[in-house]
Amino acid sequence: MFLFPQLPHHVALEIVGTARSASVQALAAASAVEHAACVYTPTGGVRAAPAALTKLRSDVLELAAAQGYPDSPDQQQAADFDAAAAVVLAEQMQIAPAEAAKGGVWEFLSCVLLPDVVRWRFGGTGGSATPLERFVSGRRNVFQRLWWRAFHLSPHVPEGGLLEELLRALGEDELVQLMERPSLAGIQGLPGAVAAGLLAASQTYSDLTRRQLIREAQKRLLRLSSFVSFESIDASEVDRHVHTVFEQVADSLPRHNSPP
Question: Exposed end of the chain (fewer CB within 10 Å): N or C?
């Protein structure tokens, strides 16, 4: 496992103060593979070498360029970048979940290694400043949110499929539903099971929208988690509960029958 540089939060805030409104080109010129204030977890892996960080930047930048970088991306370009970048981050970073839980890792990526990509991805319109939350650590950090998506969904990639295909198959609203409910997203295996269950249910119950299915299913799973310890049961049992919940959702929602 690799150990990535961790940028102290107060240093990240200092950088973000100007980075939020800087040009993509200026941030690209200021990007670096190290920062004097960075620290590392003392044990548990090997420090990521500058060459590995350089490659990560190069590969993420290549994905952004394919979607119009440095020009602002449209909605489809942004979604395509997110799906591809999540795979690259997961494959190249090779960090343990405990390491990924450290905010400084993501603040290094967003403030030092790839600040121009953050500004490009969430630059707003008319010169608007990029929201602070896209740079600092948290579930809306540009790279943190993508890595955790890949981590949670990887075990549920269909046989013979690709992670990127699964990520592309899910809409942004669906991914937000999966990843931004802390009490559910934090249960290992559950977000991936729900994603797979949603795609299967959307084929079985084609007269219902995926938005209806995912929102109602998440509400039911939240209630169910008060009685079922998802953390303590094996993956097949989690899948069974999720399948049952989607069946219950489909049975409870009004159906729009075709006119005779």
Answer: C
Q: State the pLDDT at residue 161.
A: 77
Q: How far is CA 245 from CA 105, 123, 140, 233, 241, in A?
A: 36, 39, 28, 16, 6
- Cα–Cα distance between 107 and 258 in angstroms, integer? 52
Mean pLDDT of the chain: 92
What Å distances lie between residue 215 and 153, 154, 174, 175, CA to CA? 18, 22, 8, 11
**Which residue type is seen at 157?**
V
Q: What is the pLDDT of residue 258?
A: 45
C-alpha torsion 39→107→109→179, nearest 10: 130
Amino acid residing at 119: R
pLDDT, residue 259, reads: 47
Reference 7, options 135, 147, 116; nearest CA is: 135
Handedness of CA 91, 82, 181, 15 (dihedral sign): positive
Q: Rounded to the nearest 5°, which phi and psi values hold at 117?
A: -70, -35
pLDDT at 117 over 60: yes
Q: Count CB atoms within 10 A of the CB of residue 231.
A: 12
C-alpha 241 chain-centroid distance: 24
**What is the pLDDT confidence band of residue 260, given thresholds at 50, 70 and 90?**
very low
Read off φ and ψ for residue 114, nearest 5 degrees. -135, 40
Segment 107-132 shows an average pLDDT of: 91
pTM of the model: 0.89
Q: Is 61 exposed, middle or buried (0-12, 13-18, 19+ CB in 10 A)?
A: middle
